Amino acid sequence: MIRTFFLFLYIFSSNNLFSQNIIKGVIKDNINQTIISASVILKDNTGKIITYTYTDDLGKYSLKTEKKGQFNLIASSMGFEQKSIDLTFESENETKTIDFVLTPKVTELKEIILETKRPITIKNDTIVFNAKSFLQGNEQTVEDLLKKIPGLNIDANGTIKVGNQEIEKVMIDGDDMFEKGYKILTKNMPVNPIENVEVYQNYSNNKHLKGIENSNKVALNLTLKEDAKRVWFGNMQAGYGLVSENRYEYRANLMNFGKKNKYYFLTNLNNTGENATGDINHLIRPYRFDEPASIGDDQSVNSLLGLGFDTPNLKQKRTNLNNAEMLSLNSIFTLSEKVKLKTLGFLNTDEIDFFRNSLQSFSIGNATFTNTEDFEGRKKQLTGFGKLDLTYDISKTKTYEYTGKFNKTNEKNRSDLIFNNDLLNERLNANNQLFDQKLVYTNRFKDKKVFLLSSRYINEKTPQNYTVNQFIFQDLFSENANNTRQFSENKMQFAGVEAHLLVNKKNGDLLEIKIGNQLRIDELNTRFELLQNENNLAFPNGYQNNLTYTTNDLYLSAKYRFKLKNFTFLTQADAHQLFNQLENFNTKTNQNPFFIMPKIGLDWKINEKNKILTSYSYNTTNAGVLDVYSGFVQTGFRSFSKGLEEFNQLNSSSAILNYTYGSWGDKFFANTFILYSKNNDFFSTNSIIAQNFSQSEKIIIKDREFLSISSSIDRYFKPIKSNLKINLGATKTNFKNIVNNSNLREVKNFNADFGFELRSGFRGFFNYHIGSKWNYNKVETTIKNSFTDNMSFLDLSFMFSDKFNIQVQSERYFFGNLDKNNNKFYFLDLEARYVVKENKLTFFLSGNNLFNTETFRNYSISDINISQTEYRLMPRYVLLKMEYRF
After folding, report:
1. Whose CA is closest to 436, among 556, 295, 245?
2. In this predicted structure, what is the pLDDT of residue 326?
3. Among 806, 802, 807, which Cα is nearest to 839's?
4. How far is CA 72 from the centre of its chain?
5. What is the pLDDT of residue 3?
6. Is residue 139 within 8 Å of residue 131, measured between CB atoms?
7. SS (H, E, C) 100-126
8. What CA–CA distances, in Å, run from 643 to 461, 638, 699, 734?
9. Which H or E element spans position 281?
10. In what order do the strands lie in the sheet with 194-203?
11. DSSP 3-state assignment of 285?
12. How are strands ordered across the β-sheet holding 39-44?
């Protein structure tokens, strides 16, 4: 029944798509010269605007409407008398050609007020999109609106990109609350108060660097309607399951955006799989690469072990069997003309259930075996995060900025795992505690000269307690144990100070000099023990760690960018003097290496449309604490790993070529990116793979190559008001490792993908979004394995009236290497919306996974095994929801 209804909707919409009346023509003046950018408006017999357009560079225009009846067509342009004509469409698929000749108008103007807003306005580095021009009536959140803005790409997780580059932030009337954690805003804030969406190109996170640094960053700013400023407003939305048992969804937003103070409070509770926060790590640890005053952004601590809650490449709501509660309180206070204070409080709890079955076939030399896993897991997580930003403008050219952050995350994970018919009960308690302080002083002491002084202190630790009630390591240990336990803690302290000088010369050349010192101290403590019931039998030798790894980096960087006509050249050299110390079980070793990393680049602006960017760099990477530990650490229920026990600096080189045609906001935009890198030496593994365990230790191997090519094409077709995106990509890697005491073996990986999507932008009854993507993978060692997958989707939107609309989303997945009877999966979601009172009360009927696809299987390959994994999915549910705005 559902499939029949879906097919009916598709056929009905297709008929409407091609049943349109067309009006076209040319607008000229009385001396037969065409008039550019003249407005053409079509109104019905009540005076309501049906559609509008502007004449192109040849003075031509074209309008389409699905309606029949009597209309009034109006042509106007500044400096000319307005003209109109009545016309009638009595049937469908009529085409009328109507030309206008406008007479010059001489008027004494005392004051000019322009009331009409164009959909897109360009002001220097800012592109302004009038929100109303892109709304189709079915949008609820800011993210829904941004998906309709041409040139903005929003993926399934909510990441926003302009062209191929992720944005820096999303601001509200010029103020930023979430930095890289902007998904909390875009996934929750209602769309109705938005007036414009502004895209800032060549954006600088530090206002004193605007016009000095060579920035290609992009940011978004949401400007609000006047009636949404300086008043409290918001919305509440609640839903409960009709078909499914105990499914619910509740969200609320409360806002006040004044000139001095801004408040945004939001909450979201649901067990429908919806992720209202995005990647929380982007909120807690926003990362900026190679930016002034970004010292410490790349410093963090990694956990050693996880239970394996990895999800397939599906929409998150399909596999996220959650019970989430989120509260975020955010404020901006303008304490004086010079002082601004931002506060952010975030609390998130979640309880996630996870189910998967897998069959793994291993083939390593002459050894072949198969493992089966039936996994049921539950993760309980509590995250509390607080942040304070204080900005003090000493003067118009001097600013102090302080940022303080604290994060506390507690996790309780458990699983019941049937491994080859044996039941293993895993328990993992994991915590994270982060204390982060940063201070930045900026002085723009000359019009084109800026000095920055930044300092930062970070203290982070990640303790973990892991137990398994079964003992499957009889081939590794002789003790008569029946369960195991591991405690681990990775502590990190970071302290750094950096001075940065930028000088932008009159001819546009840019000189940057940076000097700094960064100290990082890691303490890694792991204890693995064998138990008989609750009694300790042994702490096995070679499976314990107690080390302190200290790295002190004194560095100097010089960068010079100079222009020569259409060329921009970049030269850079970074000098590092390291002071490394490793203390392992009271044995100390030291190392003091010195190295220089050069980089060169060339940008060629062939013309306004064609640009080429190239660069080459030689890099040296200092080994981290997880590269140098000496004892094995348990990283999974059957896996152990260890480091190298010694200092290392690895060398690599990389080359980049990037070609772009046009700009991302043009009707046609193309971009090709090529990356080639070669590791002169790299960390590989020497592994022992057996049925009940795997052990890998790091080794250093010479020569590894990586090649990546990606291309994207954006093309807007005005006759069908649709945007076509085509993506092509391929990656090739070549490395070596050792498995089961074999000789050094070569592993070749090749991946290729091709995809397209077509999205319409009609202002009428119907819109569509259709696309498909193919992915090919091949792994080659002594044997070859490969597979091809496909994912296709079709989304339909039906605006029956201003009060009633329906949204339909469908997906199809195909896996080439699965059994032919079980290699296709279909999904269908539907939401109907009825507006009782505009901007006040709305009812929704929302259905998810209406085909009730209960499981999802995929296929993967590696250099040692082939895996088929089956996941349990969120079952079918239907929610009745109500939204009230105030």
Report:
1. 295
2. 93
3. 802
4. 46
5. 47
6. no
7. EEECECCCCCCCCCCCCCCCEEEECCE
8. 20, 18, 8, 22
9. helix 280-284
10. 120-123, 126-130, 194-203, 217-224, 170-172, 175-176
11. coil
12. 49-54, 39-44, 69-76, 83-89
- The pTM assigned to this predicted structure is 0.82
**How far is the C-alpha of 141 from the C-alpha of 55, rounded, in Å?**
33
Question: Do 369 and 362 meet the contact criterion of CB atoms below 8 Å apart?
Answer: yes
Closest by Cα among 558, 542, 548, 629 to 600: 558
What's the CA gap between 458 and 405, in Å, rounded? 9
For 621-670, how does the pLDDT look when each residue is reduced to its tens digit (9 = 90+)?
A: 999 999 999 999 999 999 999 998 888 999 999 999 999 998 766 788 89
Element (H, E) at 681: strand 668-689
Q: How far apart are the C-alpha atoms of 560 and 514, rounded to whole Å?
A: 12
Pairing of strands 100-102, 21-29: parallel
Beta bridge partners of 793: 771, 811
How is residue 788 written in tokens?
């091809």
What dihedral do alpha carbons 130, 136, 139, 143 form, nearest 10°? -50
* H helix count then E strand count, the chain: 7, 50
| Max Cα-Cα span within the chain | 103
Q: CB count, 10 Å around CB of 522? A: 21
Find tokens 């349109």 and name the residue.
20
Nearest-angstrom CA–CA distance, 448 and 474 = 69
Strands 668-689 and 722-739: parallel
pLDDT at 784: 87
Check: CB of residue 836 under 8 Å from CB of residue 843: yes
The kind and range of the H/E element at 142 are helix 142-146
Tokens of 718: 């005005």
Asked if 473 and 493 touch (Cβ cutoff 8 Å), the reply is: no
Instruction: For residue 178, give every residue at least 6 positions away whose Cβ sits within 8 Å of its Cβ, in sequence order, or none.
Output: 169, 170, 184, 185, 283, 330, 344
Decide: helix, strand or coil at residue 821: helix
Tens of pLDDT, residues 465-475? 999 999 999 99
Determine the pLDDT at residue 384: 96
DSSP element (H, E) containing 9: helix 2-18
Question: In which residue ranges of the chain is pLDDT below 50?
Answer: 1-18, 107-115
User: If residue 143 lies in a helix (H) or strand (E), which one and from where to where?
Assistant: helix 142-146
Per-residue tokens: 140: 């609820």
Report the half-sphere exposure of 47 (CA within 13 A, side-chain side): 0
Query: Which two structure tokens, joined as six digits, stand for 628?
Result: 């140098």
* Nearest-angstrom CA–CA distance, 607 and 393: 40
DSSP code at position 207: G
Strands 194-203 and 126-130: antiparallel
SS3 23: strand
Please tell me the predicted confidence (pLDDT) of residue 19.
55
Dihedral angle, C-alpha 814, 816, 822, 828, nearest 10 °: 0
Scored b (16 or more CB within 10 A) or e, 273-282 reads bbbbbbebeb
How far apart, in whole angstroms, are the C-alpha atoms of residue 36 and residue 670?
A: 27
Lookup: tokens for 390: 């204080």
